[in-house]
Amino acid sequence: MSLTETIRRLSIDYQPIDRDHAEFINLLNQLDGASNADFPALFQALYLHTVEHFEQENQLMQQSAFPAFSEHNGEHQRVLSEFKQFQSSVDKGMIAFGRGFIKQRLPAWFVLHVSTMDSALAAHIKSAGLAPE
Ligand SMILES: [Fe+2]
Ligand SMILES: [Fe+2]
Q1: 20 to 30 A Cα–Cα from 118, which one of 20, 43, 80, 112?
Q2: Which Pfam families did the record assign (predicted)?
């Protein structure tokens, strides 16, 4: 499946979040083809992007009084701490650990998270009338 097609299929029809998800998918794809020399910097870029992406969703949840905030935020925190463990492996030169994470664990988690928790958030924002026209 092409990158554009993946991004389209994972759309939750709420642009501010879809934009972050497209960036996430782009970075994952770059990591997939990265050399060992380029891998650590890109891995860190994906980590930093993910911190901001989750922060943006957490703000939207708070602004819209999203009822499942603590579960959704808890899932974000859980993944970030897992991410940090792999970041420290990559920092020590264990690139293969990082490759395993971005090839299997992270994409599978992302697809499930977007299609459940993030899409529920987008639906809530729209039903609360908070989505931009
Ligand atoms: Fe998300
Ligand atoms: Fe999320």
Answers
A1: 43
A2: Hemerythrin (PF01814)
Query: In whole angstroms, what is the distance from residue 59 CA to residue 113 CA?
Result: 17
Residue 99's contacts (CB-CB under 8 Å, 6 or more residues apart) are: 39
Q: How far is the CA of 119 from the centre of ligand 2 (A)?
A: 9
Q: What is the pLDDT of residues 56-83, one digit of tens each?
A: 999 999 999 999 999 999 999 999 999 9
Average pLDDT (44-52) is 98
Residue 33 located in a structural domain: no
In a domain, 15, yes or no: no
Dist. CA 34 → ligand 1 center (Å):
24
Number of domains in the chain: 1
Cα Rg of the chain, angstroms: 15
Write out the residue range of the structural domain in which residue 79 sits: 52-133
Residue 103 lies in a domain: yes
Digit-coded pLDDT (tens) for 79-113 = 999 999 999 999 999 999 999 999 999 999 999 99
CA of 88 to the centre of ligand 2 (A): 23
Task: Please indicate, yes or no, if residue 27 is contained in any of the structural domains.
Answer: no
